[in-house]
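== Polypeptide entry ==
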Amino acid sequence: MENSSIIAILTAIIGALGIKEIWQIWKKKIDNQNQTDILKLHQGHNSLHEVILEQKRIINEMKERIISLEEKIEVLIEENRDCAVKLARMEERLLAHAKKKVTKKEQQKRLR
């Protein structure tokens, strides 16, 4: 189609419907497009909101795990301290026993 044909058709439609009607149709089309854009934006916002909530949930879960691990570390440090004390006591007893044994053997050798 030529440009003159298109202009003639548009002129006929505008004449038949009137400029006010054409404007209302055009406005309706724009409003529908805006509503579609708003819905898409809203859906995108919801998915973004869901992503943020999921990230917050994961962060809170990680915080809980860290707190739990810190508590376990404290327990292990305390157990390690207790083991070190027990080991020191065992070493003292072992040395005392060995010392007594050596002293006894020396006394027996002297008596012979």
Summary: The first helix runs from residue 3 to 17.
